[in-house]
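User: Some background: our group keeps a shared notebook of sequences we're curious about, and every so often someone picks one and asks for a predicted structure to add to the entry. Today it's my turn. The entry only has the sequence so far, pasted here. Could you supply the structure so I can complete it?
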Amino acid sequence: MAGYFQLKQSASGQYMFNLKAGNHETILTSQLYSSKAAAEGGIESVRKNAADDANFERKTASDGSPYFVLNSAANGQTVGKSEMYQSAAAMENGIASVKTNAGDASVKEA
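Assistant: Of course. Here's the predicted structure to add to the notebook entry:
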């Protein structure tokens, strides 16, 4: 099963999306956007930037958990953030999953 973007509106009226793998696990979460159109632009940015490994920034949380952010090549802004992982290898698998799923993922509204 292919991955997909889940686009939803928050209780505050803002929009956000999750990139889900084929098994429905969330592999990337966006920031909040003021409009649906802006969130859709964020989805396009993920599609465009996920193919290039240089756009992934590998980080470590204060508790030592590895995670990553996906940045836009155009302006360097973060377009999505991963969950916290148990190991660097698991984080690398998450990055690989974003690369595999983002390019042709459909959009589903929640």
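Suggested note for the entry: The chain has a mean pLDDT of 95. Helices lie at 36-49, 88-102.
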